[in-house]
Amino acid sequence: MTKKIRILSLDGGGIRGIITCVILKYIEEQLQKLDHPTAKIGDYFDLVAGTSTGGILASVLLFPDNDGKAKYSVETALDLYAKHGDTIFNVSFWQHIINPFGLFSEKISQHGLEKQLNEVFGNLQLKDFIKPSLITSYDIFHRKAKFFTSHEAPSSLENFYVKDVCRATSAAPTYFEPAKIKSLYGQEFTLIDGGVYANNPALCAYAEARKIEFSKVLNDPSKKDFPTIADMVIVSVGTGEVLKPYTFRQFEKAGKVKWIQPLIDILLSANVETTDYHIRKMYETLGPRNAKNYHRLMPSLKNASPEMDDVSTKNIYELIQAGLTYVDQHRNELNDIAKKLIKHA
């Protein structure tokens, strides 16, 4: 029996990644009930893609233990955001005074983020991930997309420290300064958040999967090589819908400064929605059974803030509640996903 390729795609969204963790935690708990009591979700996907906060989460899920299996549960990732979010996204009082609203320099110092990434990943290398990855960033010097793919990393030209990969994918313009990193070969890159072109990286993950010889990479002859869309189960997880309306009157005579933040918001949302549209249309060309193998999990933010850096205790609580509400309302679909992941393991 040829088994389908299971793809997990994780959107960007800063601290809103907490919602993603809550949803994945439920799926992981179902895997533990149905398959193995110590199951970790990283072992149940064949390719994990992530942008920004989704890239950091992907890296946690693909972190190897001593046996080459997933070391961390989703709860570990949730703890990273809930307990250390205020360190990662800290803006000091003095920075507020000299740099109101991030108009004159980046809104957040990168030092807190880099410290946390170093503590979590240490000297782990991209090539050590347990499964193929696709983590997005954008090269502002060479002006092209940069993808971090662990299955291509055994070549030192494409191998990086994971902490640098995470720093690059999360270098959101106006929040963090660009990441200046080097591959283990010594090549230097100046990179920003992949969300500028793929805040939802699911379409990039599909394109990457098409060129992977999975039976060889995963050492599993039952896995399909160079899979088509009919050979894939795609689980794409969002960080909450942002549907803030903008009126004509607000922008009737707006200049560049007034447009900056709304434009970022609109571009990120539009990118996410367009990717979902394209993949949905591809699956609609398949038969009824295969057409159901695309799962887009996009919760409502409910009472949580749409801001990517709101790490107040209240907002973290509301993000968790938004995730739990989605789980409660979509329990059947999430249970179905867990069963598919086991079936094609």
UniProtKB/TrEMBL annotation:
- Lipid metabolism as a keyword of this entry, yes or no, is yes
- PROSITE patterns, alphabetized: PNPLA
Motif mapping: DGA/G: 193-195
Give start-end ranges for motif GXSXG. 50-54
Q: Where is this motif: GXGXXG?
A: 12-17
The record's family statement is: Belongs to the patatin family.
Q: Which residues form the PNPLA domain?
A: 8-206
Q: Which InterPro entries match?
A: Acyl_Trfase/lysoPLipase (IPR016035), PNPLA_dom (IPR002641)
Taxonomic superkingdom: Bacteria
The species this protein belongs to is Flavobacterium arsenatis
Its protein name is Patatin-like phospholipase/acyl hydrolase
Q: List keywords of the entry alphabetically.
A: Hydrolase, Lipid degradation, Lipid metabolism
Active-site residue list: 52 (nucleophile), 193 (proton acceptor)
